Amino acid sequence: MKRYLLSFLLLALMTLGACSSDNQPKPNGEIEATVKRVIDGDTFELSDGERVRMIGVDTPETVKPNSPVEPYGKEASDFTKKLLTDQKVTLIFDVEPRDKYERLLAYVYLSDGTFVNEKLVRDGYARIMTIPPNVAFADLFLEAEREAREHDRGLWGLEDSKSKAKPAKEKDEASAGSNQTPQEQAPPEGKLIKGNINSKGEKIYHVPGSANYDRTQPEEWFATEEEAQAAGYRAPKR
């Protein structure tokens, strides 16, 4: 009788362990899930209520409190809604499965193998946003963004139209980060390093106190030089 009781208890414990861990995010693990609704171009909610933020990408804002809808934000949000709503997806995690807001951080794959994070960048719906230690696909995303920029896809087409409307001298100065007023926006909390892309497509970061820092218009913000370097930026040569 004891043997049967022990066997039953062992089976119950194994079953409980499977139920409690199967759907829990683990570093470098993966889970299957169903998308309930899309919140923004890079964020969505699962059928169990969990919110997911896609790793490595940043689409223009549409739902940020007290902020206007950013250019191409609606297009990015609509694209993600069409792609993910009610779809079964595979979520693959990197080193850190959650952010400080307790959202899941994931690489997202559709059942046909489409890598959603990469597609958003390559089709011009998102910029890259690399935050260590989740950098497994940083190089792939950087290559996808370069392709989107070269072909003026999505939001890059909007920016290209604006730059073509400027005189050549003004374009060069804006790209070099000189003689320009930074956008009227406060840096994200804890991120003071400015990332700028010049007219040659070179990604350069500027730390507070450096020669061109105050005149540089940031395209991305970083907390550390290592973070900027991981996103493909380099320090200025002078």
Please state the CA-atom Rg, rounded to the nearest Å.
Answer: 22 Å
- By DSSP, the count of extended strands is 10
Shape: globular
The CATH architecture category of the largest domain equals: Beta Barrel
At the first level of CATH, the class of the largest domain is Mainly Beta
Query: Can you summarize the main beta sheet?
Result: 5 strands, mixed, barrel
Helix-strand pattern: HEEEEHEEHEHHHEEEH
Unreliable sequence segments? 2-21, 164-184
Strand order of the largest sheet: 1-2-3-6-5
Whole-Å distance between the termini?
81 Å
- In what range is the share of β-strand residues? 15-25%
Number of helix segments? 7
Helix content: 25-40%
Helix/strand class: alpha+beta
Write a structural description.
The protein has 238 residues and is α+β, with helices and mostly antiparallel strands. Helices cover 32% and strands 21% of the residues. The chain is built from seven helices and ten strands. Mean pLDDT is 81; it is low at 2-21 and 164-184. α3 packs parallel to α4. A hairpin with a 2-residue loop joins β1 and β2 (43-46). The strands form three sheets. It has a five-stranded mixed beta barrel with strand order 1-2-3-6-5. The chain has two domains: 26-150, OB fold (Dihydrolipoamide Acetyltransferase, E2P), CATH 2.40.50.90; 180-230, no CATH class. Residues 29-158 form the TNase-like domain.
